[in-house]
Amino acid sequence: MKAWRFPLADAIAIYIVSSDQLQEQHSDSTTWCQVSGFAGKAGTLCIVPDATGNISKVLVGKPEQIDTWTLADLPKTLPTGTYQLADNFSAAVATKLYLGWHLGSYSFDRYKLTKASKISKLHPPENADVAYVKATTEATYLVRDLVTTPSNNMGPEQLEEVARNLADTHEAKMSVIAGGDLVIENYPMIYAVGKASTRAPRLIDLRWGNENAPQVTLVGKGVCFDSGGLDIKSAVGMKLMKKDMGGAAQVLGLAQMIMSLKLPIHLRVLVAAVENSIAGNALRPLDILTSRKGTTVEVGNTDAEGRLVLADALWEASSEEPDLLIDCATLTGAARVALGTEVPAFFCNDSQTTTALLTSGQALDDPLWNLPLHQPYRSMLDSAAADMNNIASGSYGGAITAALFLQEFIQPDLSWIHVDLMAYNLRSLPGRPEGGDAMGMRALFDLIKQKFAS
Fold it and tell me: 108-117 contacts: CB < 8 A, separation 24 or more?
């Protein structure tokens, strides 16, 4: 850490201090800190006034390791104003602190008469990657907005509109196959899952970048509401199913980051957008579907619909043999049982890519955890009547068997990552309010950047 910065005339200085630094460097504030009970403990702060009652400086307790969330509570905690970091940090740390501040500034108030009040601003720290912070903030806000918006305002057609706006903004090409045309164009399982809704299912297909560059293809599960179909969910199980398009939201956010920061890749994004509803023509248990690949699938449960729509999209995606194929989906409760709601599970068929993604997640405070593609479990998907079933014969290892189902629709030798995420914060943490959220998106971006833009 370097010497203190010269303060801006209109900005209040923020010092991140340990207990020792508090004594050594802020002895002039000792009495006030003692009265306030501030001792430099991580997660605490002290607003120090000057002789006139205005804010002189802000002291923030220093954690063992400064991370993205160290200042993330401050935008809504501090009195409205402009602040700056008093110390210089490395580029990586400065960028984390600046990003955390912006992620902590988010509010979802679309449906409130009283909008969020003004929040405090942080002057860009020296060394911070401002362009990265801007792109990441906008992408994260997009994901949060999409997932938190209720299904009456976020159906397949609204997802298409969002994707089209992204395409227009970044001069990307986009096409959509909707309704009965999905059958004509051979996406039968996407159609089968979404046909019972009054809102037509569709496959959104966006392309951007130099076609001669390395290709990265993103596939997102866009189940805009999941009733469970005829194997209907309970009221408790259905309550948060507006978030079942969280995988689609995440790949759209990731695509926005890639396009905003102009990574030198050829990007393709496929979003299977459906509503899993109930009507006389709804998908039934033990129906047998023929996938885009030609593989037949027996429907053991209509509530395991996400893997069906992903299968058609993944087979199309892998047919081009991209250099990297990533899918994101709110796929299984089993992954949440294994890792909780805040750490996405991922599966990968490439050990080097697995290691790189784990490293990126830890470095960026955006962790994911690897689960195995344990091949002996594949037999649990066998069906007596079709090539395979969409659910396993046993109740254990559900995240693994779901991933193994998807792997059936990946061309051999492709580098593939499957992310099984919650996409929703059940509790509020610094910079991560309750509601929809991107989980693992920054780590995935960093992986793509390292592989193709370094």
Answer: 108/144, 108/145, 108/148, 108/433, 108/435, 110/145, 110/149, 117/80
